[in-house]
Amino acid sequence: MVAAVVPPVGGEQAAEFTKHVKQLGDQARVAVRMICQDARKQIAARGRGSERAVQEATDAAVEEIERLVKAKVDRIGLPSHRQVSGG
Asked: pTM here?
């Protein structure tokens, strides 16, 4: 195992990382919503399927994206040194 100490991210760099993570989260949410729209169109065209199930899956995916973005933003903001391990 190789361990390296990574210094904390500076203020400007942390802001850039945070902005990038939030943009990726926004892109992911848009992609999920587009998939939801496509699924609804297929349900309407075929006349079968569950729009409720599609909405529940969409809501769950968006919640997971929001959770991951928040966790990453919180981690970026940590002022302490972090260890990065590689194998």
From this structure: 0.75
Query: pLDDT tens digit string along 61-74?
Result: 999 999 999 999 99
Q: How far apart are CA 23 and CA 31, in angstroms?
A: 12
Rounded CA separation 53/15 (Å): 37
Joined together, the tokens standing for residue 47 give: 């006349």
- Alpha-carbon gap, residue 81 to 2, rounded angstroms: 16
Is the pLDDT reported for residue 83 higher than 60? no
Q: Check: CB of residue 7 under 8 Å from CB of residue 33.
A: no
Q: Which of 75, 81, 72 is nearest to 8 (CA)?
A: 81
**What is the rounded (10 degree) CA torsion for 47, 53, 56, 61?**
-90
